[in-house]
Amino acid sequence: LKEKTEDLKRERRLAEDLLHQMLPKSVAKQLRKCQKVEAENYDQVTIFFSDIVGFTSIAASCTPLQVVEMLNKLYVCFDSRIESYDVYKVETIGDAYMVVSGLPERNGTKHADEIAKMSLDLVAAVHQVIIPHMPMGKLQLRAGIHTGPCVAGVVGYKMPRYCLFGDTVNTASRMESTSLPQKIHISSATYDALLTDDAYEIEPRGEIEVKGKGKMKTYWLLGNKNYSVQN
Predict the structure, then answer these.
(1) Do 10 and 109 have their domain in common?
(2) 197 and 111 part of one domain
(3) Which of 57, 91, 101, 139 is the most buried (most CB within 10 A)?
(4) Which string of DSSP letters, residue by residue, matches 108-164?
């Protein structure tokens, strides 16, 4: 009976660990109790988006299995690295990778700094991912970051998803889509949030036309003065 109880506890821990990989612990706890998960408003968070440059053409030249293996290698690399930062991985959609800091657990004014350090790490890490069917090729990342308010909540009953809503999400996505290869494109809101530490090398990009937003003053995040993530 004792052995069976230990086996049951072990299986329960495995199931909980798997659930916590897909949903925040606080949300998973409520769902297990069959409670309704209320949407929550966050005054300030920082959101990161990235995608692979030229992914459509890369995918067209590969078999479906090779595409899956390539993305899996990349995301396993990213997933292991973001554990070093106070961030939450929201989701992956195809070759897009979305991460947020400041929710579901609020972290004061640290969110911009955490995402900035993480983004420098991921842009450096993408060169270390070896693609078996592209031994001479190098993947390139295009990244964008924005800071602002948003709402987070669970949508759906079957395969429920923890999603973010609001203009901050849209603007962060626009920062990524208007970025350049191996560049981290940040909004003026994120720039202002990073200024408090004076720890970052940031270069003005100037005003650019952003779809649905008009002209925006944006910047390039180049590095952190206090540490290197090249290795």
Answers:
(1) no
(2) yes
(3) 101
(4) TT-HHHHHHHHHHHHHHHGGG---TT-TT----EEEEEEEEEEEEEEE-SSS-EEEE
